[in-house]
Amino acid sequence: MGHGGDAIAELMTDHREVEEMFARIKAMPGGGQELRDVVDEVTIELVRHSIAEEEYLYPAVREHVEGGDRIADKEIADHSRVEKLLKELEKKDVDDPKTGPLLQLLMDEVSAHVRDEEDNLFPALRQACTAEALNDLGDKIRRAKSMAPTRPHPSAPNTPPANKLLAPGAGLVDRARDLITGRGRS
């Protein structure tokens, strides 16, 4: 969950972890509990990652990058689509025939979002911010991920200050539910 380094290194490591989980999903011959476990892992990682970006990365982009409002708004819209897909997947039985196409759509959406961030947003942010600012942002992102929800909440606010106030409480409830059910311990 927390990898160290500046904000860009932290988030790129998250991206590689999600790509590895997607590869595991693609390599699975069928559904069952193994697929459910990996889908839960992906969901937990994507929700934590998105919350941290919405709380800290996108406000920094708005402040430091030329055209940052437009960029941040687009990234938040991407997150909204992904969160809705995650919510649909959470409700589906992994053996449902609609789960495969839904997973593929999720993987396509996330992969496009990752490419866009890594090709455009991250280089612009690195150029606009000092190394110290990026390191500080990395620390904030790690803290946010540690307290973030682990389940999708599509109707929750995704911009400051409301998201920073509500996410820790939702995160606490989600982690308690996960502890009770054993979710995310695969």
Keywords:
78% helix; elongated; mainly alpha; 186 residues
Description:
The structure is a single chain. Helix 1 (about 5-25) packs across helix 5 (about 130-145). The chain has helices spanning about 5-25, 30-65, 70-90, 100-130, 130-145, 160-180. The model is unreliable at about 160-165 and about 175-180 (pLDDT under 50). The protein is mainly α. The longest helix is centred in the N-terminal third of the chain and has 33 residues, at about 30-65. It is about 80% helix and about 0% strand. It starts with 6 loop residues before the first helix and ends in a 5-residue tail after the last helix.
Provide the β-strand percentage band.
under 5%
Calculate the terminal CA-CA distance, rounded to whole Å: 15 Å
> Structural class from helices and strands?
mainly alpha
Q: Summarize the biggest pleated sheet.
A: none
Radius of gyration: 16 Å
H/E topology pattern: HHHHHH
Question: Can you lay out the helices and strands and say which pair or pack?
Answer:
Layout: H1 7-27, H2 32-64, H3 68-91, H4 99-128, H5 131-147, H6 162-181
Helix pairs in contact: 1-2, 1-4, 1-5, 2-3, 2-5, 3-4
What's a quick, concise take on this entry?
Helices cover 78% and strands 0% of the residues. It is built from six helices and no strands.
